[in-house]
Amino acid sequence: MRVVILGAKGQLGSDLVEVFRDEGEEVYPFDLDLDITDNRRLLDTICSLSPDLVINSAADVDADRAEVDPDPSIRVNYIGAQNVALACLEADCACAFISSDYVFDGKKNAPYTEMDEPNPQGVYGRAKLAAERYVASLLPRHYIFRTQWLFGKAGKRNFVKSILRNASEKGYLRVVTDEVGCPTATEDLARIIHSVCSSGLYGLYHATNQGICSRYEFARKILEVAGWDDVPVEPIRYAELGLPCPRPPYSPLDNMNLRLRGFSPARHYEEPLRDYVKWLLQNMDLTRG
């Protein structure tokens, strides 16, 4: 399978490149060297490669900035996604789009399935949902993967890195209790995406590791795995942070479509977290007073 991966140096994209290559696929990775908002160049590049699949993992994930200055987020997450879909239409290939739990309002108080009605509350979530609908309406051969709370080796920041960095530098933490979801290792997510995209079973999928927790519980688990149980963690409410973007307070994703189609369930998030924290402690410049 000839596969173009966009956003290939990002947190998920880098693992997609590694996993698809390990599985013997012919991979063409692009990152900032191919701007998905440049419709003509994107179209020419993808058509010249004649891929079987294009995976769009490129995204502007700064949800708070999007509330203050919406255009950059919409340009990448919606217009860019449209451009990718149009290029796939022209190249006559399948398209995989990476979406988010932010398409939900988090008020259901139970895990969301693919059949639940989205209701995004912020610019980032609205752009992702609009992109989902555009891809699905334009391309019969599409895969849409909603996921959340990613952690992986690539990229400058994620929740796990922030917890360890802040614990190291400040010696204490303040973490919200009213934001609940499913932590997800990018390596595991990349393997799910490969399995689904190799199957030809097109459609919408929720894709996460197993296990549900609050941000506070996740932070405590990170510290426990690191052997830093003595770091004080103050439980707070999300409103105390004063951030512009409204997060869905309870948005675990039920991987119903994966389960009912017979795909193997992902691991519980604690398993990859242990290896990941060990790797971070070896590779991040962290000191404790």
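Next protein, fold it too.
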Amino acid sequence: MTALLAIDGVSKSFGALRVINDLTLSLQPGEALGIIGPNGAGKTTMFNLISGNVTPGQGTVHFKGQNISHWSPAQRCRAGIGRTYQIPHPFGGMTVYENLLVGAIYGAHHAERAAGRLAMNLLDLTGLAPKADKLAGGLPLLDRKRLELARALATEPKLLLLDEIGGGLTEHEVHELIGIIKTIRAQGTAIIWIEHVVHALMAVVDRLAVINFGVLLAEGEPAAVMAAPEVQAVYLGVEAA
């Protein structure tokens, strides 16, 4: 089976600082991959390389069998890559519903009526229906996170990149978020999820990868990866025997 996403030998430097170093990862259609690592490990830069915000210095990024290494973010979005950001940036002067229409019309290329139907479905999925007519700029944190997720889904991605969407939420709110993401997975969307709330990842993902200083430290079944001494030493601060 052809991988949905294939990152092959990718490196990225900013001046003398190498942020990603010879990274190779792949993702199958419908699969969920969790990414963990300490702050500054290169996780968000990896997302930027996938979404097109930066281009690789070396190596290639393939999506659905096509080399997209030098495609623009807009091209990648239209091809089926959607993402969220750690800090949500909705169109604050628009309503929640209007924010979703933008993604459905300009990302998924729907006509207005179809875009409206998609927006309404996403409002129901993310629990935002009661706030559809509220201005996005006045939403509390949980609702901004929900909207950030719904905006990405409005582009109808085949691959959804989640960047610490659980950050700043209460335990109850994280539990609600897990339920939403499980529903998205059940609908066939592949997911790569960067998260510090590890138990949330463990509840959703098929595989876990650990990145440290831009290098892939470990990858595999989540429980086995978390039990590895080198992972505990780097990520949890536990000295390996």
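About the second fold: The first strand starts at residue 5 and ends at 14.
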